[in-house]
Automatic annotation (TrEMBL):
<dbReference type="InterPro" id="IPR032369">
    <property type="entry name" value="DUF4872"/>
</dbReference>
<protein>
    <submittedName>
        <fullName>BtrH N-terminal domain-containing protein</fullName>
    </submittedName>
</protein>
<feature type="domain" description="Butirosin biosynthesis protein H N-terminal">
    <location>
        <begin position="14"/>
        <end position="142"/>
    </location>
</feature>
<dbReference type="Pfam" id="PF16169">
    <property type="entry name" value="DUF4872"/>
</dbReference>
<feature type="domain" description="DUF4872">
    <location>
        <begin position="155"/>
        <end position="324"/>
    </location>
</feature>
<dbReference type="InterPro" id="IPR026935">
    <property type="entry name" value="BtrH_N"/>
</dbReference>
<dbReference type="Pfam" id="PF14399">
    <property type="entry name" value="BtrH_N"/>
</dbReference>
Length: 329
């Protein structure tokens, strides 16, 4: 058995921030989950629908691994990423790092992991690996999935090699800090402004505040879009609240990030953004509740009401991001 010493196997709400937390704490940088999410400019919105999908998807964060790239670049950390189509090389990439005492981040499809209760393909899942033996791999996943967990090496290889939406080619990564620890406090405002800029000027209408407005128009028509409303609508609501989002489609995490920042930075625009995201988080939970109720009772009026709330959310989040975009550098 090979185990990296000194690993704090702390599962958080979201998979990518959980893995980042493991890798960074091992390097001596211990940041809260909201701070990791915020410094990585992780908040976003996407309304995603396609004929091949059973039901539309409401996403609340940037695409998989972008958060990691944003965070490491912003803090001046060294991110070493490896991908390969070879199962043998994929294992060597991981085991070689662990053998020298480095935990490794992995992007994979959670469907194949032994400990996952929900057998749904999701190729953007991220875990930290800190050990292995002849048969098993030792991982850190979210608190919801058990924190410190194990899966067979066979299952891990299948999860890493899966192809499909959001998957990567056996992606593994390590993070190392420079000799001088980064002054992450100095990078808060640039992270907030970058996130706000992307949210306010999305390249397509499915993203950012425009995407929320689009969802407001389309959600009331979902009974004609989903095959089985009693099955599909509660599943959409569950994904919004429970699927590693930290609640409220990641808005609770961003609210807490802004609240933590407000204790470090004296800026009225930051306080405005924090107040508005506190309001938005509560309303996103209301939207999820309405979608769930629409499925349970096949009540289309609940989706009409969800559309009204989403119109309000598009405005609230736009106003919040406009205030945050004007923060002093």
């Amino acid at each position: 058995m090979t185990i990296v010493d000194g690993i704090e196997a702390r599962g958080l709400h979201h998979c990518e921030t959980t893995a980042l937390g493991v890798l960074l704490r091992h390097q001596g940088l211990d940041l809260s989950e909201p701070m990791l999410f915020g410094l990585g400019s992780g908040l976003s919105f996407i309304y995603w629908d396609a004929k091949s999908m059973e039901f539309p998807f409401l996403g609340g964060r940037v695409k998989p691994f972008e958060l990691t790239r944003n965070l490491t670049a912003r803090l001046g950390l060294t991110l070493l990423t490896e991908e390969t189509g070879s199962a043998r090389k994929a294992w060597e990439n991981v085991s070689a790092r662990i053998d020298v005492g480095l935990p490794v981040g992995l992007q994979l499809d959670s469907y194949h992991l032994d400990y996952f209760g929900s057998k749904v393909h999701f190729g953007g899942h991220v875990v930290a690996m800190y050990g292995y033996d002849e048969h098993q791999a030792y991982l850190v996943d979210t608190a919801q999935q058990g924190g410190a967990v194990r899966t067979s090496r066979t299952a891990l290889a299948m999860a890493r090699a899966e192809r499909g939406p959001m998957t990567a080619r056996n992606r593994s990564f390590t993070i190392t800090l420079p000799e001088r620890p980064p002054s992450w406090q100095d990078r808060i405002v640039p992270a907030i402004k970058a996130c706000a800029g992307a949210f306010l000027a999305p390249p397509i209408a499915n993203l950012g505040h425009r995407g929320i407005e689009k969802a407001a128009r389309l959600v009331p028509a979902w009974p004609h879009r989903v095959a089985e409303p009693k099955r599909d609508l509660p599943q959409i609501a569950l994904l919004m609240e429970k699927a590693g989002t930290g609640g409220a489609l990641f808005r609770a995490l961003y609210r807490d990030f802004l609240g933590e920042c407000a204790g470090l930075i004296d800026d009225d625009r930051l306080r405005t953004g924090h107040r508005l995201y506190a309001e938005a988080a509560a309303l996103w939970t209301d939207v999820a509740t309405l979608i769930d109720k629409a499925g349970e009772g096949s009540d289309a009026a609940c989706l009409d009401q969800a559309g009204v709330v989403l119109h309000d959310l598009a405005r609230i989040e736009r106003d919040a991001m406009r205030a945050l975009s004007e923060m002093r550098p």
